[in-house]
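thread: overnight batch results

M.L. [08:02]
morning all. the overnight job finished for the chain we discussed friday. pasting input first so we're all looking at the same thing
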Amino acid sequence: MARLQPISVCILMVLSSYYPRLTVSQSTVRYLPGFSGPLPFRLETGYVGVGDLEENQLFYYFVESEKSPKEDPLVLWLVGGPGCSGWSGFVYEVGPLSFENVPYNGSLPTLKLRKHSWTKISNIIFIDSPVWTGFSYSSGSKEYLNGDIKSSKEVHQFLRKWLIAHPQFLSNPLYIAGESYSGITLPVVVHEIANGIDAGHEPILNLKGYLLGNPLTNRVIDGGSFVPYARGMGLVSDELYESTKKSCRGDYKRPSNFKCSKDLEAVKKCIAGINKKYILEPQCPITSPKPKDTVGHGRFLKEISRELLFPDPLPTFGCREYWQLLSYYWADDASVRKALHIREGTIGEWLRCNRELAYVYEVNSSVKYHLNLTTRGYRALIYSGDHDLLIPFVGTETWIRSLNFSIVDDWRPWAVDGQVAGYTRTYSNNLTFATVKGAGHTAPEYKHKECFAMFHRWISHNPL
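M.L. [08:03]
and the structure it wrote out:
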């Protein structure tokens, strides 16, 4: 049975006008099926009720810093999609555990420690957001309509309630982090937090900044950046690139004439056999034991679904998607759900990414939020795996340049263990951009050590 954390009476009195209900359930998890022995870090799972009637219950995984929980930063981690579980960030990107990448034999997949977990130096909350993502659910309709703005407001509400229930972390430096589609929603979340601070809403959050990896930011800029990126990586010819550049006049997302459309068709034909998330790896089937029609929304799914629909229903061992498939077998196990304190009957089949959300795509560009937040003094780190064709770094560089910030530290390599790990540039208003050499979409998934070093330096206010 999940226990309700005692909450300070004085905090409750101050905040009763804001939140007449403060439903935050939480449980300490000492053992996880698939991991041998007790967990060598503190893991907490729970639910936070959001919405006017708290009908939406957002599930979370919280890992205390292994260094100094009382002083280390508190990071709220948002996975993209929209509709991808916080477990994905936990086990595949920056959390303390990962799956043993071995052939599935019908038994529970095994977990191992990750050496370069970001929880070595920070407290991290991994959230299943929006509702009907991962283990989050609603007591209302399963057709609950969510969207960029509503989900961002609910994340803000989640965070405030979580901190009320965990007042010991209120003074920790707060950072909001995420990747991919979070590039749309995360700046809105941070904007909501910043406005709440300016308005004096209790509790006052100690927001310091945010960081985003391979972020979808501007649908036109990012959506068309595959053309110059493909040319730069040698995936299309000079002649085709120059013709496309001329016919489309630099706008590769919205073809305005027949020649532009034909040129774009030729470019897409050249890259049709390329793994968009990581151009160095083979294409594999989409990851789901029960494949669903992927034609819809998500990380540019309308554009890449055709390449993902293979006749073979499951990825083969050796594909990155096979490694991701292990989460389905693990999360649907009854002993796992019991260990995580999942409320019975709330979620049927667990999905790493729910592609069937009733979701409204309202924000076409989050650039204005970046401009607002950085000029208000909040720190920002934007990073990109340089082998990502899904949201190429050249599009990210383009919208960053549109901010017209002066350059403080010009383009240079940054290194780990004496080897170039990527390139970086620092702008005024505390904005840092970095590439991660050899990484794909969701860079920490591919370069654990390098991304940990990048995060450690930046969060410590040191140059990359």
